[in-house]
Amino acid sequence: MKKLKRSARLVEMTQYLLDRPHTLISLTAFAERYQSAKSSISEDLAIIKEVFEDEGIGELHTLAGAAGGVRFIPKCRKEQALHKIEEVCSMLEQPDRLLPGGYLYMTDLLGQPRLLQELGRMFATAFADRDIDVIMTVETKGIPLAHAASQYLNVPVVIVRRDHKVTEGSVVSINYVSGSTKRIQTMSLARRALKEQSRVLIIDDFMKAGGTIQGMVDLLSEFRAIVAGVGVLVESGEVDNEERLLHDYTSLARLTEVDMKTRHIAVQPGNFFQS
Fold this sequence. Notes:
Order of helices and strands: HHHEEHEEHEHEEEEHEEE
Strand content: 25-35%
Helix content: 25-40%
Number of strands: 12
């Protein structure tokens, strides 16, 4: 690209980093891209690092040595995230969202791009140090959340199907017991969708007893994959600890009370905000 003035270079370099989270970029690559000395690039990166950290955008990690460079790690401040989650909790407490079985209607929220971006950044913050290779979710409502998180973790998404699709090719299928309905159900994943020994982050929109997520954990064992973390948007707090099939997870919100008669709903921030 053509040589830019420093002000323009700072803008372009910032966007370049934002578009490539969790990617190591060498000073040499920057120097060649902007036709500038490494000393000038280092000064620019110091400015960008300060702004990123002051504004709560993320961190800019520097790796020394010949193979070193910089890596942008998107993060959000917990106080900023808490303010947004409290807004989400307030929206989820609307009585008309209550569905049979104590579930909440959330499809409209999961269709808002700006909100999805913020939720994705929260998940990326929670699992920034887990060395994630891929994000897994089950169709359908977990898909937008998984893609939102993948944008900030810069990893691919694989989707577990409840029904085998011919377009998936050869698949691995397992039966699992739904934690909420206690019914046996089936889920499958294409064999070529996941490499062995992959470190997988599981993302889902709602967790009641955890049967579906436990099913995904069992499915991953068929691929000899490693569960690097589990993130859910909303967990049900009305499930006894003994009934819950999964205990190691991160939630952004927690459904604490549902009264079907009065249609009263209470939702509070999840365990992500307790650490």
